[in-house]
Write the structure tokens for this entry.
Amino acid sequence: MTGIDADVLARAAEEVRRATGDQVIADMFQRSMADNLPAVAERRPDGTTFVLTGDIPAMWLRDSAAQLRPYLVLCGDDPGLQDVLIGVLHRQLEYIVIDPYANAFNREATGEGHTTDETEMSPWVWERKYEIDSLCYPLELAYRLWRITGREDVIDDRFRAAADAILELWTVELDHEARSAYRFQRHDEEPTDTLVREGRGRLTTPTGMSWSAFRPSDDATEHGFNVPGNMFASVVLGYVQAIASEVLRDESLAARAKELKAGIDEGIALYGVVEHPTFGRVYAYEVDGAGERLLMDDANMPSLLSLPMTGFAAADDPTYLATRSLLLSPENPYYYSGTHASGIGSPHTPLSHVWPIALAVQGLTSTSAEERQQLLELLRDTTGGTGQMHESFHCDDPTVFTREWFSWANAMFCELALAHAGRTL
């Protein structure tokens, strides 16, 4: 079994119904939670769990963890579900050791995927777009499962090996120009699918932050240092430090995590904060260390909007609130407003397309119960008649959308519904 216990889910759905006063939202929640995980999760003979990313026969490190967030909220009462989630974590950790630069992996070493990319591919790797956040999500999942379940089988030698690989990579990528051997080129595709300068990416100068080739959207970074990705890395390095000290009794690993976190935090403070003439002190989305900076946000997590969810800033932090005001305004080039919806989209999808993920994040980071309710109702009303969340939809016509079914977006809707009912991570 790869799903959630029916009684646990029924109780949660009733909590959602009472909180929202809306049977349709409660039914959408219950259906998504019942169907989402079994549709993508496959228990393997070795005890690990392989998770498909939507309709693609591969497992993305980021998506496979993000899809689990609402199940983490409820897994404390469901030991069978805990087994499935721990199995996901253990497979992720094994993948990371194979290639920490890869973002998506095959079920077996079949050699399927983007085989014509110019990079160091392995038969296990489906795609090798390096994204800093792809390494953050498994570390967060490990920490949350450890804290929520208290089970000794969450953290084992696989965690130690993966954490070592991640810290080594993030340290190398502090100075991508001088130290990194990573290269990536994809020919005859969109410009956002490849790196310039023969696969090295645009020129950067060290900042204290760790370089990333691609964003959470899988689009190439413009300036190398993705600020929300580094913020997430800072948070999970704190998790590594805690696990290394309290579980593994490995003070060397804990000290390495602490030192790297301190340097990234300093880099964010020095380079990732901008004084905006209208909004004041705000966070940039990307910087290059040589004066270039990008003020925007993307719908994909980790985003600047999602900082309270990733744990870097409180929802009432003044700099976060100023940044949030900028992001939810025309100053963000990917904020779209139409007759049916207003919200954040992405250069990854067509113009004027709002992402349900971003709407859910907006609700999950809001301090207003009224705003959460409004956003749940908006998500309910913009499925284009399918009853499912999409990757994106046109802000003037929800029947125009990308990806009819998107597991990650369904999970985010469910997490928002649970949060509105008082159940949070």
